[in-house]
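In the present case, backbone shapes were mapped to integers, as reproduced here:
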Amino acid sequence: MEDVSEQVQGEEYVPEVMEQPLEPELEAPMEQELEAPMEPPTPAPRVRVRKVKVKAPADTKPQPAPDPNYWNSRLQEHRSSQRLAKDERYGNLRIM
């Protein structure tokens, strides 16, 4: 045991240096940023877009006007088929 205590006494005690926390390093750049004048970001240059109307070639024929009775006739056909299906379903019931 005496040998160990002599070895420890012979050596100098060197305390381990702990690293400094990062907070002081972070504070310095923030202060520098706050001291610098705040400039608004410059907007991107606007690109002008020109609208151009393109004329259709003159040799094309205009489409004929749609038939105004087309959708009316389609609706009537649909309703008649619905009525026939309903009559078929309820045709065997008696009225009381």
The radius of gyration is 47 Å.
